[in-house]
Amino acid sequence: MSENIIYCYSGSGHCLNMAQNIAKVLGDTDIVMMRSFPAKTDATEAKRVGFVFPCYGGGLPGHVEEYIKAIKIAPGAYTFAVEQFAGYMGCGLHKIDQIVRLDYWNTISNHSTCIWLMPHVLTFPPTSKETAQKRLDQKAAEVGIDVKTMQHSATRPPEKAFFALESKAFSGMHPKRVKKFVANADCIGCGTCVRVCPQGNIQLVGGKPSFGSNCIGCLSCVQFCPKAAINVGKITEKRERFPNPHVKAADLSKPIIHID
Ligand SMILES: Cc1cc2nc3c(=O)[nH]c(=O)nc-3n(C[C@H](O)[C@H](O)[C@H](O)COP(=O)(O)O)c2cc1C
Q1: Are both 183 and 111 inside the same structural domain?
Q2: 220 ligand 1 Cβ < 6 A
Q3: Same structural domain for residues 79 and 204?
Q4: Where are the beta strands (DSSP E) in the chain?
Q5: Which domain covers residue 102, as residue numbers?
Q6: pTM to 2 decimals?
Q7: 242 located within any domain
Q8: Ligand 1 pocket: which of 85, 116, 118 to mutate (most atoms <8 Å of CB)?
Q9: Does residue 241 sit within a domain?
Q10: Could you tell me the CATH number of the domain that includes residue 222?
Q11: pLDDT in 10s for each residue of the chain, 260 residues
């Protein structure tokens, strides 16, 4: 049993990269992926239990809220959470705090991986990918030390009630959007999209991906396709992908990653 557990959700790898860097500071950490149902819900032997996740549609991605409700944490364990977002933090941290009562929380902004909505370089103020990654690295180092020394935040995460509505509306849009997912002629039928989909929503039919209706909009398939062949309608055709350069598609599909 590891001393620390970090529950992580990540669509394009940026939160996984951050969770790994926090774990390197902590040592002896299991990173449990919350993509399909978490591989481990019993965290009662961990001294520190954390959550690293992105803001999606103003709230929590996919089924993260249900996952966290299923996790058992020992009374007195230290709890923490870090949220990544592009423009605004939304209500995700507040939702987790309602379930777990966080001792410590922090946030960090990154480029947006939601490339059907906007190009990832559209940041205010403009920031290069390299600078955004440096910021993630610095924040991970800062959080790692805070968590290792069990610092406590002075305030609770803000409620941001409006974003609970946005989050609900956003999840309701996935069934319509999934009809726009298409693989173009550059597709080599490698099956990366099949393996990286947290929902098991993609199958290869005649060597090409076929998209089912069970999409949660994480865009892992779009971001990690080695040929950038998967698009959401026409809008993403000319948009650069933005997966984390330190994370491989295969890392995202591992249920648990141990860091010594
Ligand atoms: C489907 C989707 C929805 C998103 N919604 C928001 C949002 O509402 N607000 C925001 O500030 N950023 C939003 N983002 C940006 C992500 O929070 C940000 O890019 C994050 O770094 C992605 O982390 P990941 O690579 O671990 O998934 C969204 C990204 C995606 C893919």
Answers
A1: no
A2: no
A3: no
A4: 4-8, 29-33, 42-43, 48-54, 72-73, 78-85, 104-109, 181-183, 202-205, 208-211, 230-232, 256-259
A5: 4-164+247-259
A6: 0.97
A7: no
A8: 85
A9: no
A10: 3.30.70.20
A11: 899 999 999 999 999 999 999 999 999 999 999 988 889 999 999 999 999 999 999 999 999 999 999 999 999 999 999 999 999 999 999 999 999 999 999 999 999 999 999 999 999 889 999 999 999 999 999 999 999 999 999 999 999 888 989 998 988 888 889 999 999 999 999 999 999 999 999 999 999 999 999 999 999 999 999 999 999 999 999 999 999 999 999 999 999 999 99
Q: What is the token pair recorded at 120?
A: 């990832």
State the distance from the centre of ligand 1 to the C-alpha of 107, rounded, in angstroms: 13
Atom of ligand 1 nearest to the CA of 113: 19
- Asked if the structure places residue 237 within a domain, the reply is no
Interatomic CA distance for residues 161 and 173, integer angstroms: 20
What does the block give as tokens for 167? 């989050």
Ligand 1 within 6 A of CB of 58: yes
Going from the Cα of 113 to the center of ligand 1, the distance in angstroms, rounded, reads: 6
Q: Do residues 101 and 44 share a domain?
A: yes
